[in-house]
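Rotation project, supervised by the postdoc (A.L.). Task for the rotation student: set up a whole-complex structure prediction and record inputs and outputs verbatim in this book. Inputs entered:
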Amino acid sequence: MSDESMNSKLVNKAADDEQDLRILRALETAPRTEIPADFAARVASRLPAGRRPVSLTPTHYGQNAVFLGMILTFVVLIALTVHNGRHAAFGLAESLLLTQFVVLTVWVSVRRYSV
Amino acid sequence: MDTDLTFEQLVRDHQAMVFRTLLRLTGSREHVDDLAQDVFLRLYRALPSFRGESLITTYLYRIAVNVAQDEWKRRRRDDRAHVSLSDETSAWEERLAHPDRNAEQQLEEREFQQTVEEQLQLLSQIERTILILYHQEERSYEQISYALGMPIGTVRTHLHRGRKKLREAIQQRQTKERRTECQTNQ
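Outputs recorded:
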């Protein structure tokens, strides 16, 4: 490849990069907004009468139930291990509970709150 | 978040974000006030089922995108041309004004911003939404995925495709403008 064509390629690449930067800058520039001073009050006035304060406190009932379930499964697993050997059904139950415990642990650790 | 607050306060805290997102998503200043009101009223109605699994801002983006989609549908029905952001006020002028730049550079930047804005409105709704949420609102892939209800991989694909289309469209337009300029100079 000649020096000239390589130089021209480099120049083109620099121009493309510069163009990309300009586009990104333009995209990142948010438009100017004109919000009426009484906007929030107007929205609030359109709400049904007798409204309560808004609660944004996450309840996480489901998450708590999963943790409780994991603890229970773990306790039962230990109990089954202690009684292991008496009956074949114990072994099967133990395997099922272990699988359930592992699945719950993976699900809880993968699941993200506050996206 | 462990606070109880009045809805009015919540609106005040998030109104700027809702306005600028709707403004760019719809590409028009017309009705933005009404659309923003719609967003907050929908949020109010949805609050009892808000389980706190996402941030309230992410939840608001989701509602804002839905409201913008309804607006696009309404426009399609009415078959009305959109009003450019620059029609009513020179929205970009003050933001781009920089004491170190000369007037010519500022004018050029303003024109470029306007071109980007116009080409952005020509993209598909989904590509435009993702570009705005990612670049303007600086949302993560995960948050965009939640707001739009689509897998993260799809968000990435649309973002990449949207950027590429935008770049190509701008290049095409610039080439065309240069050609026209040359012809008029000859």
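Student's summary: Chain B has two domains: 1-83, 123-186.
Supervisor addendum: DSSP finds eight helices and one strand in chain B.
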